[in-house]
Predict the structure.
Amino acid sequence: MSSATWRNVFTYNKYAQITARAVRQSLKESERVVAEKRGVTALKYQQWENGVGGQQVFLNPEEDKGVGKSAAV
Amino acid sequence: MLARSSLARIASQPSPLGAAPKTARNMATLREIELRLKSVRNIEKITKSMKMIASTKLAKAQRAMNSGKQYGLANSEIFQHAPSEAPAKRKLFIVTSSDKGLCGGIHSSVSKATRRAIADTENPVDADSPIMVIGDKSKSQLARVLGKNLAMSFNQIGRDIPTFADAAGVADLVVKSNVQYDSIAIVYNKFVSAVSYEPAIIEVANENSLKESAGFRAYEMEDDVTKDLAEFSLANAIYAALVESHACEQSARRNAMDNASKNAKDMIDRLTMQYNRGRQAAITNELVDIITGASAL
């Protein structure tokens, strides 16, 4: 158990997210739909150097549907 | 008789706007007032509907906040039992705000709290402490003032209730980045009541600070597990902060839109009064013209 090699690949948070996704996908249909909403994230991030922002990158590229909808307000 | 002489006196005074025909000038201002009235009515409809939407979202956000707060409380228990020996020299500030505006002073309160914490002389922190911002509004505010300190920024959080997946993603990126820090200070808005909020800071310790603390050294802990705990507790703290900030934002937006609707209603009343007075003045002037014309015949 102490020789888990996943720690070389990703962090504990990612590990927890993967296991959570597995649990959600194994739920009964009605419960699954509710639970899927709790796992949705459309996070974007960008690195900053010296006061200048870099390129904005999606954390989960498969959810990238092109230019995101800009907020109305 | 007195009324007619005073009317004649007023009519003979030169108009401040120049020598346009009297009735034409009143009609022009009447049209302007009518246009303004129409636009303010539309604005009132919009702000009223925004207020309704924000109140329904607030109910949901408050429920999520109450359950999310338990994560934050359970999280902070660890740090109460394992306080770090040395005061943190290098703090990473994570600022939680959102991408949308029209919510009162939410974003500027959090940005100001960050600036105050960095300029604080009681508990000094490095002047080049790294800052990571969640949310575009605070990002633009802080980029203007503390642009050199910005390390990373996140957006697309806050459209709906923040999920733990969002918080875990942010925590992941923080840990994987090359930023050096001894502890993390998460700046967020604390929900005091449905009409007020105040900025607050959650402190989260680094993996190394946890290892050094007396509470931890009393046990035999594997390094791997300590690292996991540090990362997970960071995600927990970020989640609690995000959810509470989101609830504050909805309540602030509801209050701001409520005030805007009230102001719009006041403006509508005032403009309607002005419009009616102008209309009646125009009618009176036309009557005067007709009567003086008729009496001249």
